[in-house]
Amino acid sequence: MHISLDGKIVAIAGATGGLGPTVAAVFASAGATLSLVDRDAAKLDALIASLGAPPGKHHRATADLADAEQTRAWAEQIRQRYGRVDAVLHLVGGYRGGQTIAQFPDADWALLKQLLIETTWNVVRAFVEPLKASGGRFILVSSPQAQKPLHVNAAYAACKAASETLILALADECRGTGATANIIVVNAILTPQMRADKPDADYAQFTAAEDIASAMLYLCSDAAANMNGQRLSLFGAR
Ligand SMILES: NC(=O)c1ccc[n+]([C@@H]2O[C@H](COP(=O)([O-])OP(=O)(O)OC[C@H]3O[C@@H](n4cnc5c(N)ncnc54)[C@H](OP(=O)(O)O)[C@@H]3O)[C@@H](O)[C@H]2O)c1
Predict the structure, then answer these.
(1) Does ligand 1 lie within 6 Å of residue 15's CB atom?
(2) Atom of ligand 1 minimally distant from the CA of 116
């Protein structure tokens, strides 16, 4: 299925992480104009250069998305520049785990709450009204741990569950507006860099970044206009 996003404005939070560059490349190839945000300006510049678009086509902003004010400022830049936003892809992540609940460090609990819950809350709040106005899309990437936690991932699972709940609440608020909010669920992401670094590793439980980007593109297409508040699992066949 060919999906064109010509004329669409797509905001990508956490754009320079593991998944972001693949998603940015797929959405740029589909014709979207991107607003990319992350914390490192040099990485954002390198990512925009890699997209090979005419200068000025894509926008980038540095922001700490755990900070509500900085997150709102990014949304405001998009409003001033484009007057609309058609999709928000929330890719901010990070992982801590591997200990029992009693052993898990307090600092890591605080970090995961910030990375996974606060950034989601801030991005949802900054973009809910523009997305309702445009009939746009919000997509979160989550983990099966949110539904079926292991004790060694208690903190990560709890934070992902909280962020999923925010998206389901957003989906409820979007109902009737034309906007949608959905969750893509993967065990682990296989990036092009990982494949290049260790081509012979066993990635059977991983989902390729390209497949996640394709699912996101589908969720942003007209064909998915009636899909709201869903968890799409992109694993389980192997
Ligand atoms: N990787 C996996 O196997 C996996 C599995 C299941 C679900 N997920 C989810 O899939 C999504 C994408 O995963 P990923 O591996 O690409 O994530 P990631 O690389 O860990 O993070 C994505 C980007 O978010 C940025 N970021 C972190 N905190 C930020 C903040 N406060 N403000 C602005 N940017 C911030 C990171 O920048 P810094 O480099 O500065 O930290 C990084 O560039 C995440 O939501 C993740 O939870 C991933």
Answers:
(1) no
(2) 47
pTM recorded for the entire structure: 0.98
Please calculate the CA angle 217-221-227 and round it to the nearest 5 degrees: 100
- Which atom of ligand 1 is found nearest the CA of 43? 43
**CATH number for the domain formed by residue range(s) 9-233:** 3.40.50.720
Q: Where are the beta strands (DSSP E) in the chain?
A: 9-13, 33-38, 59-62, 87-90, 137-142, 180-185, 189-190, 207-208, 231-233
Q: What whole-number distance in Å separates Cα of residue 57 and Cα of residue 225?
A: 26
Is any atom of ligand 1 closer than 6 Å to the C-beta of 186? Answer: yes
Going from N- to C-terminal start, the domains of the chain cover: 9-233
| Per-residue model confidence as pLDDT tens digits over 143-160 | 999 999 999 999 999 999
Strand (E) or helix (H) holding 156: helix 154-174
At 28-39, the pLDDT tens digits run 999 999 999 999
Q: Give the confidence band of 223 by pLDDT, cuts at 50, 70, 90.
A: very high
Candidates 12, 19, 116, 184: which one to mutate for ligand 1, based on the most atoms within 8 Å of Cβ? 19
